[in-house]
Write a structure and sequence with these properties.
single chain, mainly alpha, Endonuclease Iii, domain 2, Endonuclease III, domain 1, 2 domains, 57% helix, elongated
Length: 220
Amino acid sequence: MPLKRGETKDTAMTARTQEIISRLKREYPEAKTELNWSSPLELLVATILSAQCTDVRVNRVTETLFRKYRSAEDYAQASPGELEEDIRPTGFYRNKAKAIRGMAQAILTEHGGEVPRSMEELVALPGVGRKTANVVLGNAFGVDEGIVVDTHVRRVAQRLGLTGHSDPEKIERDLMQSVPREEWTVFSHLLIFHGRRVCKARRPLCEDCVLNDICPSSLV
């Protein structure tokens, strides 16, 4: 797409990103995390469980899990085998149970049983990486510290020409340069919604896409 008079590559990218956000907000006004949660701890646990698992399946598991385990202390004191069975349908249940118990123990001993509100403190918890921390900060605390990059965000951002990288951290840095900070949390939701509904992995529905006239990968 040619630059307009007096426009630089950076300003052109920012303007196009703003247009992408505007169109996707009109298309998906309800865009938010599709994990069910009612507290920062529940969101943290659900996000850990969502690794290599669909949100739909996680929500099925947490419907009973959250009634059984109501505090960090409950998770910390849980029998490893029992917790594994409780989360088994989400896959990789042994590693996830270990991460959840370790996370809960750290929250108890280092944070008075409350989920911390900073990136530095969150990523120091067992089983919590930057992506999980971004989910919790942005959705539970309204803190725009970064942009969640999952498989949908990576695919859609690449197809839209917003990044040329495949590494999540490099993609996040690219997106943070063109997406306004106050939009960081919602931006990932918009791309996830679009990736699940239209810009699908195997066959993108370009003919139904509200971005097909400004997307360099459009098949229309």
